[in-house]
Amino acid sequence: MKHLTETQLSAYLSETMDESEKLALEHHLEQCESCFHDYLTAMEEWDPAITLSGSFTDEVMTVIGDQVAPSQPASSKKRMWINFSAAAGLTLILTVSGLFHEMVSFADQKEFKQAPSITEKMMTQTNELLDGMKKGDDKNE
Ligand SMILES: [Zn+2]
Q1: Cα–ligand 1 centroid distance for 29 (angstroms)
Q2: Fewer CB near the terminus (10 Å): N or C of the chain?
Q3: How many Å lie between the centroid of ligand 1 and the Cα of residue 32?
Q4: Cβ < 5 A residues, ion ligand 1
Q5: Which residue range forms the structural domain that includes residue 31?
Q6: Residues 93 and 30 in one domain
């Protein structure tokens, strides 16, 4: 096998290489110190973020923009995702505060036994909020 080219190394690093080609390249790297050195240099210079940055940054900026200015029209898919994230965060907060409440109530066993399940209450409230979000979305369609 000939020495590895820069193209081969970048194909290897970006994992766009055939499995058999990859094995041959790895085999060569094991035996050839000069190519292994080239490989290390290429790896140090390799930054997959450069190839991602363009569209990825745009998408992130769009999402942030939607959240800062919710009156702007957004695709329903995106809005659904934001609602989902908000609901997930809300559920977490409610669950954590619910657990915290239960821990406090645990100190007073009598009261704790008589009180309705706090977690159940929280779940009902979260579902109501989710329904409210869905209805709000339907109006906007
Ligand atoms: Zn070599």
Answers
A1: 7
A2: C
A3: 5
A4: 3, 32, 35
A5: 6-46
A6: no
Measure 33 CA to ligand 1 centroid, in angstroms.
7
**Gap from CA of 24 to ligand 1 centroid (Å):** 11
Ligand 1: centre distance to CA 59 (Å): 41
Query: Is the whole-model pTM more than 0.85?
Result: no
Q: What are the phi and psi torsion angles at 19 (to 5°)?
A: -60, -40
CA of 51 to the centre of ligand 1 (A): 27
- Residue 42 sits in the same domain as residue 63: no
Same domain, 101 and 136: yes
Ligand 1 centre distance from Cα of residue 48 (Å)? 24
Q: How far is CA 41 from CA 16, 44, 60, 74, 136, in A?
A: 19, 5, 31, 44, 54
- For every one of its 141 residues, what pLDDT tens digit does the chain have, with 9 covering 90 and above? 589 999 999 899 988 999 999 999 999 999 999 999 999 998 888 766 555 555 666 666 677 676 665 555 556 666 666 666 777 776 776 677 676 666 666 565 555 555 567 677 777 888 888 888 877 666 555
Grouping H, G, I as helix, E, B as strand and the rest as coil, residue 75 is coil
